[in-house]
Every structure is written in structure tokens, then in C-alpha cells.
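Budget justification aside, the reviewers requested a transparent look at the raw inputs and outputs of the sequence design task funded under Objective 1. We therefore reproduce one unedited record. The lines immediately below are the C-alpha cells for a 290-residue chain.
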């Protein structure tokens, strides 16, 4: 018995319990919790860990992780960087006020709605698998000579048989920076989708968000966050959620993706070295026109 206790004591000394810090992320103005915020740790400019805050805006970070800084961000908020844990254990995020380059005024109080973007083509159907922190966007081009208000986004997806809880996703948008996703456009648009039926088309209303489709177009898409199980956010397994689209040579359009917790670099799906793998997701947006 003494030998057993001594062995346990030695193991405790060799492997001390790992302590952690629990932080709350809140809206600086309202004091409300900020759920699904990105929390990313950097060491020598490389990402060493990443996760989401939960439904109550909380996150637990192990103190055993080595990092130079932690960046807290969320769509609709200004990025906030810390080099040490705050004494209050609270991180305040400031709302990012969207400054429109143009203001749309309609002469008609009931403007016409038009759909722009990518539908299923005669090319081969395909899909891209996702997991937590995956963002996929496509360039939505504007064929008109003026900015248009975006009222909704539409996309097709497939879910896994093994997932029972609702999926948590978020609409994302980025300015067109010479054919690449640029500065993010603040959108407060997290939403849920049901795992059944497995093949679905989802429409997310963006009315009131003030999102404009400028003349140069806008990269718009979806980020997969996780699943809700027993009122708790859990990580979505790889291949549990897929975006539907078309694949093949000579497809028109630009599409990019990235895993935000691994790299901030976007991957271009229109790689000229692999033209047969050019993938375009079925992302469409509804806009108001005169």
C-alpha cells in the first residue's frame, strides 16, 4: 500500500495538474456575452491553438500553452489582442461599425429581388468537407453599375448520418481585393441548421444587416462553427458537414477556403496547375434592384 501511494505521489510530481484560465468575452457596449468568438493563440507569428467561445461567451485556455499573444475576434467586432491574461478574466470586444462606401436609395418602395451567384451546372457535382473553423467563400459578381443591398444568402449542403444535434454556422463576407478575399465585412449572422434531412438548401436572411454588393463584387460564404449537443457547443468532426457545388475544367468564378484556427491564408480553388479540380460552391445571394 505504501509503495502504491509513493508511486502516485511521484507521478503527481512528474506530471503536475495542468492549470487553465477561464475567460468571458463580452460586448464592450452592452455587456452581453459574445458567443462563437474566435480565440487564437500565436507563438512567433504561428498559430499554436484556436477555438470558439461557447454559447455564454466563455472559453477555457490551458496555461501550459506557449504563446506570445492571444487574438479575440468575431464578425461584427474589432479584433482584440492580449499578451497576458486579464486580471478581471473578462475580454471586452468593441463593435465594428460598418461604414458604407455607398448608400442605396430606392425610388420604388417595393424593389425587385434578383438572385446572383452560382447554381448547379452541367459539370460534375461535388462537395467540400468541413470542420470547426472552416470558412468557404465565393466571389459574387455585380453585373449592374451601382451597389446593391443584399437581402439573403442561399447555399446547398449535406450532413452526416452520425450527427444528431443542430449545426452552428455563420455568414461571412470579405471585400474583393483584386480577386482575393480582403477585409472582412461585419455581419451578425450566426444561425442553426438541422441535420435532417441530410441534403438541404438553406436561405439565411440578411435584411437589416446593411450589406452592400459593390460594383467590384463581394466574397460571401459560410463558416462552420460546431454542433449543439445538450445545450453545449461541441467541435464538428471532419466530413460531418459538406458544401455542395460543381467541379471541373473551365468553370467560371472564384472560390477560396481556409481553416481559421490553422492559417489565415486563403486557398484558391481555381488553381491553374489542377484545372480539373476547379470547385465552385452553390452560393447565391438575393439583392434588391430597381
Amino acid at each position: 500500500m505504501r509503495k502504491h501511494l509513493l508511486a502516485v505521489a511521484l507521478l503527481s510530481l512528474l506530471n503536475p495538474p495542468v492549470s487553465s484560465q477561464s475567460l468571458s468575452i463580452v460586448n464592450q457596449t452592452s455587456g452581453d456575452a459574445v458567443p462563437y468568438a474566435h480565440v487564437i493563440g500565436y507563438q512567433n507569428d504561428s498559430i499554436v491553438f484556436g477555438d470558439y467561445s461557447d454559447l455564454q461567451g466563455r472559453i477555457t485556455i490551458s496555461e501550459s500553452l506557449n504563446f506570445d499573444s492571444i487574438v479575440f475576434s468575431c464578425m461584427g467586432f474589432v479584433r482584440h489582442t492580449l499578451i497576458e491574461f486579464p486580471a478581471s478574466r473578462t475580454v471586452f470586444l468593441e463593435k465594428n461599425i460598418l461604414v458604407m462606401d455607398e448608400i442605396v436609395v430606392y425610388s420604388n418602395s417595393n424593389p425587385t429581388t434578383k438572385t446572383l451567384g452560382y447554381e448547379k451546372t452541367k459539370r460534375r457535382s461535388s462537395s467540400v468537407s468541413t470542420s470547426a473553423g472552416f470558412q468557404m467563400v465565393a466571389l459574387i459578381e455585380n453585373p449592374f453599375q451601382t451597389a446593391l443591398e443584399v437581402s439573403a444568402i442561399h447555399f446547398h449542403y449535406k450532413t452526416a448520418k452520425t450527427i444528431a444535434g443542430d449545426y452552428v454556422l455563420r455568414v461571412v463576407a470579405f471585400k474583393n481585393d483584386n480577386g482575393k478575399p480582403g477585409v472582412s465585412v461585419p455581419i451578425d449572422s450566426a444561425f442553426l441548421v438541422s441535420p435532417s434531412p441530410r441534403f438541404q438548401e438553406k436561405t439565411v436572411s440578411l435584411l437589416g444587416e446593411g450589406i452592400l454588393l459593390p460594383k467590384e463584387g463581394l466574397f460571401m460564404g459560410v463558416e462552420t462553427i460546431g454542433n449543439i449537443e445538450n445545450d453545449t457547443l461541441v467541435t464538428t468532426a471532419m466530413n460531418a458537414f459538406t458544401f455542395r457545388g460543381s467541379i471541373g475544367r473551365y468553370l467560371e468564378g472564384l472560390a477560396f477556403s481556409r481553416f481559421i484556427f490553422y492559417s489565415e491564408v486563403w486557398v484558391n480553388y481555381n488553381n491553374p496547375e489542377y484545372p480539373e479540380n476547379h470547385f465552385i460552391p452553390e452560393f447565391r445571394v438575393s439583392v434588391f434592384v430597381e
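DSSP finds one helix and 23 strands in the chain. The mean pLDDT is 83. Computational costs for records of this kind are itemized in the attached budget.
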